[in-house]
Design goal:
47% helix, globular, mainly alpha, 86 residues
């Protein structure tokens, strides 16, 4: 597992269009302590742990990395209009 994050530039390499952001609002954590919780509702410390330990491979890891970047940069407000659509 690798994080794929540049620790000096946490937003580098992270891009998201509206469809990707909508997927973050709808996707649920498939395993672990927070199984069934929406990715956007995962606690920031849990996402920070993944960032330090390594995100899972594949789409889930990419999605978790995006949620992490959004949360640590105080951009959670971006999810509000998407929550209203869901």
């Amino acid at each position: 597992m690798t994080s794929g994050l540049d620790t000096l530039h946490p937003c580098s390499g992270v891009t998201a269009d509206s469809a990707e952001l909508q997927a973050l609002v709808e996707m649920r954590m498939p395993f672990g302590k927070y199984r069934g919780r929406l990715l956007i509702d995962l606690p920031e410390p849990y996402l920070v742990w993944f960032a330090q330990s390594g995100f899972p491979a594949g789409k889930l890891g990419s999605m978790l990395a995006t949620v992490h970047t959004i949360k640590v940069n105080g951009l959670e407000y971006l999810f509000e209009p998407l929550r209203q659509r869901s």
